């Protein structure tokens, strides 16, 4: 087992034995409605990360996040395994303007922003104001607050958030280089269509979508398959759901062809 303890191996292979996973499942409806599980784990994660990482050290902040999510209470971050897929896509694309749908507690925003250079910036959209505050505080702790704007809202709110993104955050015709989607799975395709309708993408823009396997976004996956070689070129990354090695998941990395 390469020095890995039996308890750690069981925890990775049998995630359903972890109470925080069971508690998350019990709070599933609350999470879908509010963006939080309902047991205070999101605020607890902030306090843990602040206490167990040095200010100005993004990688240390991510490590503390991963420690909390793996060993204390499950979080719906993209996590350490799938995060490497996001990292690789970011390095390959070298984007300047990025949009995130589903900021949660700031993990993926920190993971993304630490790889941005120059004047590149990320706009992170999160539905829950408390999550947004947690994300802002941890981005500041990581030393990345100047690279990320956290916006409370949803793309599917009737146009208010889309207008705000255009008016206040520079999302305009052909301006968007990279999109990371990790929010309500039923909103993946409608929100992508809204982005397309707004004209924000350009040929070469990249969209990365997490959890296409579990919980699953079958309509989004079907759309990408039907559009292959015409509007999109997609790579399906076979991986695992957050913080365990039993349940398989899919991350889709799609290049917009125009």
Automatic annotation (TrEMBL):
Q: Which GO terms of the molecular function aspect are on file?
A: O-methyltransferase activity
Question: Keywords of this protein's UniProt record, alphabetized?
Answer: Methyltransferase, S-adenosyl-L-methionine, Transferase
Please give the superkingdom of this protein's source.
Answer: Bacteria
Answer whether the UniProt record assigns the keyword Transferase to this protein.
Answer: yes
Q: Which SUPFAM superfamilies match?
A: S-adenosyl-L-methionine-dependent methyltransferases
Give one Pfam family, short name only. Answer: Methyltransf_3
**GO BP annotation list:** methylation
- Does this entry carry the keyword Repressor? no
Q: What is the name listed in the Swiss-Prot or TrEMBL entry for this protein?
A: O-methyltransferase
Lineage per the UniProt record: Bacteria, Bacillati, Actinomycetota, Actinomycetes, Mycobacteriales
